[in-house]
Amino acid sequence: MSKAELIFVPAPGVGHIVSTIEFAKTLILRDDQIQVTILVMKLPITPFIDAYTKSLTASQPNIRLIDLPQVDLPSSELLAKSVESYICAVIESYKPHVHKIVSDIVSSRSSSDSVPVAGIILDFFCVSMINIGDELGLPSFIFLTSGSAFLSLMLYLPSRHQQIGAEFTFSDSDVIIPGFANPVPPRVLPGALFNKHGGYAAYITVAQRFKDAKGIIVNTFTELESHSLESLHDGQNPKIYPVGPVLNLIGHPHPDMDHSQWDKIRNWLDEQPDSSVVFLCFGSGGSFGVSQVKEIALGLEQSGYRFLWSMRVPPGEDEASKLKNPEEMLPEGFLEGIEGRGMVCGWTPQVEVLAHEAIGGFVSHCGWNSILESFWYGVPIVTLPIYAEQQLNAFTLVKELGLAVELKLDYRSNGDVVKAEEVERAVRCVMESENEVRKKVKDLAGMARKAVMDGGSSSTSITELIKDLRKYV
Ligand code: UPG
């Protein structure tokens, strides 16, 4: 087999970088003639991404990182109006640099003995760069860091936009989206789709380009989202490759992690009975204000279960964001009151926690990586989505797949407060040993592992993808 190069352009966020890099590694493991170049963007809202990317790719001779030059960033007013339009604006500014680097790579490979570029693999936020591939004669593929439910939404949005041409509103009737078995309530759609200040426009612009990709690689597996994946195979959409779960199971060396605290947590977990601890963690950016933290704390206390809670101080201008330590948000005397039954912490290596036998349930913001990691270890989820497509993921897990316990599907942090009693109920429900969801998720863990083994559904899909990519060199 001859050598071939792939150029990856991931978005600069933890939830995007980790699975993208892991996927690049998977391709190289499967075909050692593949070389990967990753173009690295930097964003001030994720300052550690650079070091993070380097540590995830260390000792990978077939992966080369190229730092893209700094660009002038859009104004903070734009960020305040819509995170999505801010990210898209940053990505637009990077486009000329990406164009230059990719075209330099292509022209340096013109001799017959050099390694040809087989294609560009873009994060979904970077789909406007499909133009670069087109201009340079390279096929562009999307690597989707979320699941098939989100893909269904993105493939549906352009036709709705053509008919209606305006943002969603919370009072809209439920939406029929191909790929969903149930009508989808507007309240579980990504917040950006209601945003009149650029969020909706940014989403539509991204969604409109999905059909221009040569293929869409999705971090999901057929056994998890069979209905959705089957309905998207309609001959109209680009070819879809379910290749997941693509996971980094080694824990992430995040700069915010306090190693001595993690040692204490690990020792504490080792002392707890199997499946007795509920873990709460809300992704790389999820946080709550003081009043919500108080309700969660009370709910945990009233549930009587052991817990490990990874907390963050929220960004912004309010009282809570001025606190230095997330523990300061807890009600006074809370930690003393629970008498060693629970621990709170900052960044923890989530995969290591989920793998621990003491963990019996996971209250999650339903970021896609967290969902896949939890399923991999057979840990049932309680849904508390916060932003991005997390509400849609929560809806998919609870209503479409029956694979999670509902706490909230449509939580919006700017106004909603989930009450302690609701937290208590959901925690009790997920921790019950006879819970139906627990049994289903245990079975799913086996299916996830089979999917990525030789001959499994995702493994077969990766073989097909490599074959298809090689047709372009
Ligand atoms: N993580 C830790 N420790 C922590 C917090 C997070 O190891 O204390 C890891 C976690 O294991 C996971 C990643 O960080 O691998 C977080 O990814 P994810 O669960 O997907 O959440 P986000 O960081 O919020 O991810 C963004 C979006 C989310 C989307 C995802 C993939 O917010 O909605 O599904 O990207 O596109």
UniProtKB/TrEMBL annotation:
Pathway where this protein functions: Pigment biosynthesis; anthocyanin biosynthesis
Keyword Transferase part of the UniProt annotation: yes
Q: Keywords in alphabetical order, please.
A: Glycosyltransferase, Transferase
Q: Which SUPFAM superfamilies match?
A: UDP-Glycosyltransferase/glycogen phosphorylase (SSF53756)
Transferase recorded as keyword: yes
InterPro entries registered for this protein in UniProt: UDP-glycosyltransf_plant (IPR050481), UDP_glucos_trans (IPR002213), UDP_glycos_trans_CS (IPR035595)
Output the Gene Ontology terms for molecular function: anthocyanidin 3-O-glucosyltransferase activity
The identity of this protein, by name, is Glycosyltransferase
